[in-house]
Specification:
heterodimer, A: D-Maltodextrin-Binding Protein, domain 2, D-Maltodextrin-Binding Protein, domain 2, 2 domains, 5-stranded mixed beta sheet, 10 helices, elongated, B: mainly alpha, MetI-like fold, 8 helices
Chain lengths: ~270, ~250
């Protein structure tokens, strides 16, 4: 009987608080508390180096967080005149922490899935992973414009990734054995064991910069791979009631060009290594 | 240090990767180690103090002849509350308690200081209270009833007899069990990472997050946990033995 009472008391308290809390006020000088895992490179990771890119982790002395999400979070906070605070929160705890008011937004490489949208609202995307193919510069595929041009080629990708699943969209493709690191994949294409590999654009840029015998092929519109939005986009999550905050964040994000975002991601990738 | 590894060793260099991780993340890992020790010390000491109260409430005896009606009611209520407390907190996993208490209190929005670490300290304390209460109850019941009878014969009332005769012996009997709770806490507080308490487990996970070398990182965690539990087990053994000898000496 007492236990039942306790359960009711907790539920009542939860329900009460859900009604009573005011929505986030976007005002100069207010604190914007961002939640992320600090363990999901290249979006966010923990380091003990303090530099111009890192932000100290709230409540954990000596630990700093770096990554693409941190750059985006800092940009949003700067543009809106908000004080940025970043908390490291376990992945499964991110949405509960947002609901409970421990954080104001989630910027954690999170994709806006339909299930999550039932609980929280998502901003416009702040990163879209364009899928490109990396080939040798002297290869006949270097001038390709559509994935159909890769018909009959030998293509590889990283083990257990979205890219490995995408290979089969190429007509008549020879699906090579997936490898576990981009080092091995790059080597396979350079040595001619494979004709091409699929990668996200920033990864491809980074690899082709350090391997001048390689280049990458981008596709436009329907010439490229068919991917679901959930697989390739990430967005900022906010509480359902925080419409003003969502609009403010959207207004900052729409101003970002895809070149800027790719450059930030590339820089994050190079800091990670 | 003699071996400075500026860049990450290749995949497969297990020891090299572990050294790299320690060099690059020692500050973060040490912080987590400190939090794990803090959680265990506060949880066990706090749990011990609270458990004395809970055990006392569970052992309350209602005297049908002498107690007035109000006294009977409040004694029965205290006793029932203490029993329920132990049943609930021993009967549910700490990870579940952590989720309910942390997010439950957070969503009330009335404590600005409420954050993972204070929540973790509270959760490990109330959880340990329930377990140590069981240990103490065993400690009390292992004291010969003759001790109480003798004390009453000498003119002490029940309360005085409990305080001066039964409890000191009960606590001494319970010490190995309490020490064991400390060792268990060192390991079990790892579940508090579920509410983002940055303990040893979570901090090691963070250290692996840049390069995804999880096995090497968790091997570091395993070694540190093993050192912690090994050393504290030895300390508990030593203290227990020492207490035994001194009591023998004073008896002779």
């Amino acid at each position: 009987m007492k236990k039942i009472f306790v359960v009711f008391a907790v539920l009542f308290a939860l329900g009460l608080s859900a009604c009573s809390q005011a929505s986030y006020e976007v005002r100069e000088g207010n604190t914007l508390t961002v939640g992320l895992e600090a363990a999901y490179a290249p979006y966010n990771w923990t380091t003990q180096q303090q530099n111009e890119f890192t932000v100290p982790l709230n409540g954990q002395s000596g630990a700093y967080v770096d990554g693409y999400d941190v750059v985006v979070a800092r940009h949003i906070a700067d543009e809106l005149g908000l004080e940025l605070v970043i908390k490291a929160i376990e992945w499964d705890g991110l949405i509960p922490a947002l609901q409970a008011g421990q954080i104001d937004v989630i910027i954690a490489g999170m994709s806006p899935t339909a299930e999550r949208k039932e609980t929280v609202n998502f901003s416009t995307e702040y990163y879209r992973a364009n899928q490109v193919m990396v080939v040798r510069t002297d290869s006949t595929y270097a001038d390709a414009t559509a994935i159909a041009d890769f018909s009959g080629s030998r293509v590889i990708a990283q083990l257990g990734t979205l890219q490995d699943d995408l290979i089969d969209q190429i007509p008549n493709v020879v699906h090579g054995t997936p490898l576990d690191s981009y080092n091995a994949i790059t080597q396979a294409v350079r040595s001619g064991e494979a004709d091409a590999f699929i990668a996200e654009l920033p990864v491809a840029v980074s690899i082709t910069q350090s391997n001048s015998d390689l280049t990458y092929v981008e596709f436009e519109g329907t010439n490229g791979f068919t991917v679901s939005e959930e697989d390739v986009t990430t967005a900022v999550a906010v509480r359902k009631r925080d419409n003003a905050l969502l609009e403010a964040i959207d207004s900052v994000l729409v101003e970002l060009s895809s070149e800027t975002k790719d450059a930030w991601m590339l820089a994050a990738l190079s800091r990670q290594n | 240090m003699a071996f400075i590894l500026a860049t990450l060793p290749p995949q497969g260099d297990f020891i090299g990767t572990m050294i790299y991780l320690v060099e690059n993340y020692y500050q973060i890992i040490l912080y987590g180690l400190g939090v794990t020790i803090l959680l265990s010390v506060v949880g066990t000491l706090g749990g011990f103090l609270l458990a004395m109260g809970v055990t006392q409430a569970r052992l309350v005896e209602i005297d049908q002849k002498r107690d007035g009606p109000w006294q009977k009611i409040y004694k029965a209520t205290f006793k029932r509350m203490a029993v329920t407390y132990v049943t609930v907190f021993r009967g549910t996993p700490m990870i579940v308690q952590a989720m309910i208490i942390y997010y439950g209190v957070a969503s009330l929005g009335i404590f600005p200081w409420w954050s993972p670490l204070p929540a973790g300290l509270l959760i490990v304390t109330i959880n340990t209270t329930a377990y140590i209460s069981e240990v103490l109850r065993g400690g009390v019941s292992s004291v010969d009833p003759g001790q109480m009878e003798a004390a009453r014969t000498l003119g002490l009332n029940r309360r005085q007899a409990m305080r001066h005769i039964v409890w000191p012996q009960a606590v001494k009997n319970a010490l190995p069990g309490i020490g064991n709770e400390f060792v268990v806490n060192l390991k079990d507080t790892a579940v508090l990472s579920v509410i983002s308490v940055v303990d040893l487990f979570y901090s090691v996970r963070q250290s692996a997050s840049t390069n995804y070398r999880y096995i090497e990182a968790f091997m570091i965690a395993a070694i540190l946990y093993l050192i912690l539990t090994f050393v504290s087990s030895k300390v508990v053994d030593y203290l227990t033995k020492k207490l035994d000898t001194t009591s023998e000496v004073s008896q002779s």
